[in-house]
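Handout, section B. The chain below has 286 residues.
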Amino acid sequence: MRDVLQTVGKVLDRDASILLLGESGTGKDYLAAAIHACSNRRNEPFVHVDCASIPHDLFESEMFGHERGTFTDAQSRQLGRLELAQRGTVYFDEITALTPPLQAKLLRAVEERRFTRLGGHQPLPFEARVISSSNADVEALLATGELRRDLFYRINVVTITLPSLRERKEDILPLVKSFAGKRSVDPRAKRLLQAHLWPGNIRELRNAVDRAVLLGDTITEDALALTPPTGLVPLAARAAWSLADLEAQYIREILRQTRNNFSHAARILGINRKTLLEKRKRYGIE
């Protein structure tokens, strides 16, 4: 996280586009808003675009706006998200959720730094800074064509990868203390907090702590309502697994936890992506 924040500090007041990568719940939305709030654009709008929730047929109207009478329900002019951002920041949350045709339409505006409202004729300047995020395996999407390379090159001038909570377990208890305020944490609860795999990362941690806070003045194991992870080694011993069986099961679990993000899974496993793909093929892991 220190490395992440050092990188952020270097690019705060630059105009370069930023791509935030990381699993769901690692804090990409929070970091995007923090970058804007600490930059020289802080007094301008911050526009959050949830790419996964915009209907395909409304994308252009939502992004670029429309003039009155452009279509049946267009009773008045509507400003799009790009225009509303003015000289501030537009944050494309989960940009890889856009289909390639929509990516192409967005690329033109980002590349040319201008756009035209639907039904309009006058090009408008696009002056906002672009921050994007994704929890997907970007390399895999590029390989399949689900993510356009030209858009990818435009939005990832600076790439920042947020680590999962599993990779920063020393931060768990300080985060709990921050979330829980003056409430104490039972020793057994501490052990459970550090043993849990946290597939939902910091979002899951905060929800667990908030739930426990509602139930009493002390954070207890029962109040957290977390299921401790099943140990693979005892399970392997009972089932008489071979070392290869154990490795295959561990890789399956890491891929499940990372939602098949091969690059991120490889970092957790301590191997390169190519080796992970070879092992996946060898063990027949779907």
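Note. Residues 243-257 form the longest helix (15 residues). Compare this with the example in section A.
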